[in-house]
Amino acid sequence: MVSRAFRDETRMTELPQTIGPYRVLQRLGGGGMGEVFLAEDERLGRRVAIKRIRPDAGLPAAQTERFRREARLAARLNHPAIVQVYDILQDGGGEVEHIVMEFVEGRTLRALTAQGPLALPLALRLGREIADGLDAAHQEGIVHRDLKTENVLVTRTGHAKISDFGIAKQVLVGAEPELTRADAVLGTWRAMSPEQARGEAVDHRSDLFSLGTLLYEILTGLSPFAAENALATLNRVLFHAPPEVRTLRPEIPEEIGALIGQLLQKDPFLRPRSAAEVRWQLDTYLTPGTAGGTAATLIETGIFPAGSSAPLSRTAGTPPPGDSALTTLKNRPRRRTLVAAGGFLLLALAGVGGWLALRRPAPPLYVALLAPEIGTGSGRPEVELLASGVRMALLQGLVGLERISPLSTDEVDDARGTPRQVAQAVSADEVVTTRLDCRIEACRVSLNRVRGADGSVVWADSFEVPADDFALIAGAAARQIQRGYPGFRVRGGGAGLAVDGRDFEELLALRRRFKAREGQDREIAAGLAEILQRSPRFLEAYLLASEVARSRFWASRDPDELKRGLDLAREAERLAPDDPRSRFARLDLALAGQDLGLAEAALAELEELVPGDVRLLERKSWILSAQGKPREALALTRAAAEIQPSSKRLADLAQLEIQQGHVDAARRTLERSLQRSPGNYPALSLLAILELYNGDLHRAVEIYRELVRRSPGVAQLSNLGLAYFSLGRYEEAAATYRQIVEREPGHALALLNLADTLLLMGRTAEGRTLYEKVLTLLAADPATTTPQYLTVKAQALAHLGRGREAVAAVQEALRLAPNDGPVAYEAAVVYALLGEDDSALVNVERALSLGQGTRWFALPWFSSLRRDPEFRRLLEKGTSAAD
Questions:
Q1: What CA–CA distance (Å, rounded) separates 30 from 52?
Q2: What's the burial of 865, exposed, middle or buried (CB within 10 Å: 0-12/13-18/19+)?
Q3: 48-57, 186-195, 283-292, 753-762: which range is least confident on average?
Q4: In principle, which of 57, 103, 160, 187 could form an S-S bond with 33, CB 3.0–4.6 Å?
């Protein structure tokens, strides 16, 4: 019966003479539901392959429509590694469906691997091309669902072409039995993902599992899951862990073996995040070779015999001449870092692809640790303090696991909503939730691991401890969360919580004061020093003390604070050599002090400790920015935002785009940020800045009013005043600036803005008095060597007619920030006030090129330039560029 059913399914229809405008040449193959013809498009003089649903296949109308819709989706793809769909046809009665594709000669990967495993360089390069094609399809929302060696063709020039994109579910041709019935799982048994085998909804990660299976097959010549029958094969897909590829072929690089192992994870959340990441990793093990200056064909390399007849291959595009089939593996050292000499910066210029041409290890699991919920005991100050201690301990426990990257708690706290919504906002793979229920004598701590994609609970547990010992509770929390991640190895050299309960409780109180900006940093530093005298092995105290020292350095520019912070970070390293937080502290302190050599050394160490963590890319971009390389810094910041597109990271990218004059790009980036986290305060703040400088001033006022309502900070009040000022609403601007001065009498920028406003209101004497006060404040402040303070000083001096001093201050600001648009604009203001028109015009042009809007040059400071034709030309040019 089985044999007869198979013969019935493979019955062929009569060979048609034409299909639409295509002349049929021959039948290439067929299966139970479809058949394929070779035809010629006589209009364009090219051969095509036409796949059609057999007239007697009996597909329901819904499936036929689904087939047509997905074929249209596939037709949107145009990529060298994907079969190009040209056309979709119906017969005269509208019943028989045809898909017209490009015909390219080649052999399937299945046929090639029947001869044995592929050469390692060729296998990895083909894998890279397949991953690239998958990435292009996934970007369009198309999932293949039946990726396998039979559906990948290798052309005579040695390049991979993925066939049947988006239609493999409906029309499958091949020797292996396929599950294509309407009530069956769609796909090929040995290549499908576990979730596909269970009949669950699938996404792009299902294709990644299939890609792992394909790589396994072409590298070893064996299927990781194929068994004697369908049931046994599906059982292996669901439950079997295949042998590691390096046990079958030791020459495979260790990282490639680890990548395939990650692709074959049963849990889709443990696989790589995208096909792009797989491509990036394969990229780093390949370097193009040449064969007489052109790409070698597979005939030349012996994979296709000369004169052989190749079965159907169908894809669009011609590979670039330099992409040779003789690709070789790179000779890689054992130690690798993100810091590469010379060529790194050239690569960065190419944007995301440039950096990713370097080694890109598999990314860690990004985990968002929510603030604990308090049930029983809510409202009791000691329980609320204990909750912050449990969170700190959980963070230390997660940091102590390899391949896990806990996200910043500050960033997590900015997000709102359900765990799933928080995960979307911060781009977390998982969220950890905590609940405390504290009676007088004991506390129960409940923990949950929640998947970010769907909000489902991966793991849950709870434990109970005495309520009067903070250190005991924290230690139990750290151990328990590590038990919740059994597949992740604990780092060596951890410090644990070497502290008694009293010191731990005091640390939590000091940390709360520091984060809330309650009290002086000096007092907090003194309290931490006392804790460290009593508990000299308390890691968390060293880390917090180092952070406080960095804050004090920013405020005072005292080099002793910088040295103190670095000493504290090094002591933390000594206590816990494998804890990355101390290296991050050292790196950030080095950047604060402009010690770029020390920063790069810390970055190199972090690459060994937390390979693939997106924070390394972020820090490298900061180093490049400090080196005066804004284009390279922007390229890497964009790469970081693509890899981990949290709302904050996107907002950071937008800020850099604004600074460098990429206004339209910044607006698009902020839209993405606010889509991830609607109402996000930092993103809204940047959007308001964008409207203030380059958009709708009335909208800027509306946004700033909302931001001030939510949190009346000085920065938002200052910008609201500036928006009023720019609209000529001087009374409202002055009232806003006075709010700031009443709260912070020493705020030099607010005083300068208030003085400017009073000057334009005709209150010249009051304005001059405030300019003098600005200079007095700045003279007493040791932190006034930054570009912003220098331009504030220069403007006050210029308004008072002290030209030589004003020019000296503004030139120093330009030296420190040569690529900063606001600094260039303020330099133009200073020179215009002093009547130095040529210097003013130079800085007008510079400011416009760096993205400053033309509206700012309509302010009264530039009245002397308005009749200058060069000034008008620059503004016209700036306006047209903005359009």
A1: 9
A2: buried
A3: 283-292
A4: 57
**Which CATH number is 365-483 given?**
3.40.50.10070
Of 298, 290, 299, 350, nearest to 322 by C-alpha is 290
pLDDT band at 623 (very low <50, low <70, confident <90, very high): very high
CA 687 to chain centre: 20
Rounded distance between C-alpha atoms, residue 698 and residue 705, angstroms:
11
Instruction: Indicate the residue type of 330.
Output: K
Contact partners, residue 647, CB within 8 Å, separation at least 6: 414, 415, 425, 426, 427, 673, 674, 676, 677, 680, 682, 683
pLDDT at 10: 38
Tell me the CA distances in angstroms from 372 to 375, 457, 516, one per residue in order: 10, 16, 18
Contacts of 746 (CB under 8 A, 6+ apart): 777, 781
Whole-model pTM: value is 0.55
CATH number assigned to the domain covering 782-883 = 1.25.40.10
Tokens of 709: 């309502």
Per-residue pLDDT reduced to its tens digit, 130-153: 999 998 888 877 888 889 998 899
Q: What is the overall mean pLDDT for the chain? A: 81
| Domain regions of the chain by residue span | 4-102, 107-329, 365-483, 501-611, 782-883
**CA nearest 35: which of 172, 159, 161?**
172
The secondary structure of residue 490, as a DSSP letter, is B
Quote the Cα angle for 41-42-43, to 5°.
90
* 712-721 confidence digits (pLDDT tens): 888 889 899 9
**Distances 625 to 607, 631, 791, 820 between C-alpha atoms, Å:** 20, 8, 20, 11
Choose among 630, 672, 638, 699: nearest CA to 849.
630
**DSSP per-residue string spanning 610-621:** STT-HHHHHHHH
Q: Does 501-611 match 782-883 in CATH topology?
A: yes
* Over residues 430-454, mean pLDDT: 91
Q: Give 81-99 pLDDT, tens digit per residue.
A: 998 888 888 765 555 678 8
The structural architecture, per CATH, of the domain 501-611 is Alpha Horseshoe (1.25)
Q: Which residues contact 214 (CB under 8 A, 6 or more apart)?
A: 109, 127, 130, 147, 148, 149, 152, 191
pLDDT of residue 817: 84
Exposure letters 506-542 (e unless 16+ CB within 10 A, then b): bbbebbebbeeeeeebeebbebbeebbeebebbbbbb
Fold (topology level) of 4-102 = Phosphorylase Kinase; domain 1 (3.30.200)
Secondary structure (3-state) at 309: coil
Per-residue pLDDT, averaged over 735-739, amounts to 94
Nearest to 470 by CA among 536, 374, 389: 389
3-state secondary structure of 26: strand
d(CA 47, CA 40): 4
Domain 107-329 has CATH 1.10.510.10: yes
Distances, alpha carbon 778 to alpha carbons 341, 405, 751, 774, in Å:
41, 42, 11, 6
| SS3 labels along 92-155 | CCCCCEEEEEECCCEEEHHHHHCCCCCCHHHHHHHHHHHHHHHHHHHHCCCCCCCCCHHHEEEE
